[in-house]
Design goal:
Order of helices and strands: HEHHEEHEHEEEEEHHHHHEEE
Radius of gyration: 22 Å
Low-confidence stretches: none
Strand content: 15-25%
Helix content: 40-55%
Structural class: alpha+beta
Length: about 260
């Protein structure tokens, strides 16, 4: 096909795309072709440099003003993550940045996903992703939809972000950073300790409550209701404040927590 025809196809695909991303099904609908015929066209346009393949069945449509073969990527890694790793939500340190709980910048976007992924670190279309796999049942409580340009993407709310990080401190880069996130949350005018406890009931474990109780007692000693709720959910055994850090640490029997870092 002539380049002018290619440009007409790209224009049609671009109009049907979401943030430049388009599935084979969406392309077939836009071009009014069968799936097989569409796949042939997409493969040809990819070889000519008009498209970039993100994964099997998903393509990035380059802008019409781009030269064929020119490097391109999506502007927003959140939108790309929503297409690549669905069902999923943006969480951990990326959600903490979004809600203003941290000024620390992370190179990769953290994605909590129920998709069948094996790798924990993935690079795609110029973006880096850190993946944390969970059962689909954990993709519900405390998740909100946020606009990213013209697309809505799932992200953990402020309270769910903290609960996730209390359950797995690695999601925010460790317990030291977790303590900083909690301090920022307490200083935020949007904090809601009752909602934090409610989300923890649905998405937390025994270790979640141990870390929450210990840190809340240090940061928010006057929040008696939250501390009382945390005590109700303490489980048997001892948990580490930061599971990724080796060393015995000091046991705080009140919370069943081994404080193995200086938070």
């Amino acid at each position: 096909m002539a380049p002018s025809t290619d440009r007409a196809l790209i224009a049609a695909l671009s109009r049907a795309s979401k943030a430049g991303l388009l599935s084979v099904h969406g392309a077939a609908k836009a071009l009014d072709l069968t799936a097989a015929a569409t796949s042939i066209q997409l493969a040809r346009l990819t070889r000519r440099g008009w498209l970039r393949r993100a994964r099997r069945g998903l393509y990035l449509v380059l802008p019409l003003e781009a030269k064929p073969g020119q490097d391109a990527t999506t502007e927003d890694p959140w939108v790309l993550a929503a297409h690549l790793f669905a069902p999923c939500y943006v969480g951990g340190w990326s959600a903490a940045e979004h809600w203003g709980l941290t000024e620390q910048l992370f190179r990769s976007t953290l994605v909590v996903t129920a998709a069948n992924v094996r790798a924990t670190k993935v690079g795609n279309l110029g973006h880096e992703f850190r993946l944390f796999r969970v059962p689909r049942s954990r993709l519900i409580t405390g998740i909100v939809m946020e606009w990213r340009g013209k697309e809505r993407v799932a992200v953990s709310g402020m309270e769910r972000t903290l609960v996730d990080c209390l359950r797995n401190p690695e999601l925010c880069g460790g317990a030291r950073h977790l303590a900083q996130l909690m301090q920022a949350y307490g200083e935020s005018p949007k904090h809601d300790f009752a909602r934090l406890a409610a989300v923890a009931k649905h998405a937390g474990l025994g270790a979640t409550w141990k870390r929450l109780g210990y840190l809340a007692e240090r940061l928010w000693p006057n929040e008696a209701a939250l501390l009382t709720e945390a005590r109700k959910h303490i489980t048997a055994g001892h948990s580490k404040l930061d599971p990724a850090v080796k060393g015995k640490g000091k046991l705080v029997t009140k919370w069943g927590l081994v404080v193995n870092i200086k938070a």
